[in-house]
Amino acid sequence: MSATTDRTFLDMTRYQWTVLLAAWLGWGFDIFDSILFNFVAPNCVPTLLGLPIGSPEARAATLNWTGIVTSVLLLGWGLGGILFGKIADRIGRTRTLLLTMLLYSLGTAACAAVPNIESLLVCRFIASLGIGGEWAAGAAMVAEVVPERRRVEAGALLYTAAPLGLLLATVVNAEIAGDWLRDSPETSWRWIFLCGLAPAVVAFAVRFFVKEPERWAQVAQTTVAPRYRDLFTPEWRRYTVTGTLLALTALVMWWSCNAFIPVVVGGLGAQAAAAQGLSGGEAQAMIEAWKTRAIHIFNFGGFVGTLLTVPAAKYLGRRAMFGAYFLLSALSILCAFGIEMSAEARLWMYLPIGLTVFGVFGSFTYYLPELFPTRLRGTGAGFCYNFGRFFAAAGPFIVGSVASRGADAASTAIDVLFWVGVVPLAGLLLIPFVVETKDRPLLE
């Protein structure tokens, strides 16, 4: 496709939309592959350990290994994001996007054939390297290809793939494990992992239809290869530190709120079932239905919140936008988990949490690439966005510890989440130091 094709919606050419679509699919499938284990763990872990599915031993083992596997995912995600960000500056955005998509799709699909839990850990780690690396390549590519005046809109649209990726994982699990193979839980999880191959098809399409951004191609021929220490020179240190701390604040909020959804909402659903006099299978069905509702509410809020970063960034500026999202995140979390309310009302509080805690991530896809020049864009954006995952990796262990408390798990989780509301309040201290990039051209 030619970059000179007549402009269409949002003043972007068909080729620019093709680039955005390629990155959008890459990020959506990235999230899809990253979350699949969360759905299959109750069947996958007991099968690999030789335990009866649904037994008390199986449930305890699932909680333990879910924490371990998720922590491994986050560590690999952080490492892959930092590593492939630098690779994107070395070999190009399109090549790196192709490489990372192949890596996470093949790594996820390989989980379908694992014979034991140790092999599963290895495959998830391999997939996590690609999952972490895809974002930096895609975000840099979109920022460098779309028109300057549409960079915010394109970046926000790119991140809308995240809640839709989560939704796709929910649907795939429901169709395969809940419908087609509901009588074969020992094998249904393998077919769900096999769906992780889907991004490989998109990766080959990227290879044929998307070329390297001209901005990167010109700079790559005349500049030295990027180095991580370049991010901490006097010229870029403030950009790197503030960008990393902003992303760290957002990551802690998101992983805390999202990871505790099954525990908190499971408790809320149990309260609702008891109030209606339900027990046994009927009560469990209501609990599962509440969990699904909460995920959909949280994802919908994230989708809308992502789009709202566009007017916030363009009219308020980046600094004020982060301040508003962090303040509203704190209010949402503190109110949701600090005020006495009915189970139904607390369930719906995941809407404002999604709008703010999830929605703020829509800004990183355009803000972090704006901070760095072309030769450091992938390296810097990848480092800032992913470094915090090393800290977030401790979260799954905390979730598992809380979940093991049984009947007290929900109330304990609510107490923990109330104090998570302090995190965005601390993030407000960063706002005076945030680099304002409103109306500033992308750095060469």
Task: Give the helix/strand class.
Answer: mainly alpha
For the termini, the CA-CA separation is 25 Å
Q: Per CATH, what is the topology?
A: Growth Hormone, Chain: A
Tell me what the CATH architecture is.
Answer: Up-down Bundle
What overall geometry do the principal axes of the alpha carbons give?
globular
Query: Could you state the CATH homologous superfamily?
Result: MFS general substrate transporter like domains
Question: How would you describe this protein?
Answer:
The protein has a single domain (about 10-435), classed as MFS general substrate transporter like domains (Growth Hormone, Chain: A). α3 packs antiparallel against α8 and α13 (about 320-340) packs antiparallel against α20. About 75% of the residues lie in helices and about 0% in strands. With about 450 residues, the protein is an all-alpha fold.
Summarize the structure.
The chain has one domain: Growth Hormone, Chain: A, CATH 1.20.1250. Helix content is 76%, strand content 0%. The protein is built from 21 helices and no strands.
Secondary structure: elements and pairs:
Layout (H helix, E strand, L loop, with lengths): L13 H36 L6 H36 L1 H18 L6 H29 L5 H9 L1 H20 L4 H10 L3 H12 L4 H7 L16 H23 L1 H15 L4 H37 L1 H21 L4 H6 L1 H9 L5 H8 L5 H10 L2 H4 L2 H9 L5 H12 L1 H6 L17
Helix pairs in contact: 1-2, 1-3, 1-4, 1-5, 1-6, 1-7, 1-8, 2-3, 2-4, 2-17, 2-19, 3-4, 3-8, 4-16, 4-17, 5-12, 5-16, 6-7, 6-12, 10-13, 10-17, 11-12, 11-20, 12-13, 12-15, 13-15, 13-20, 16-17
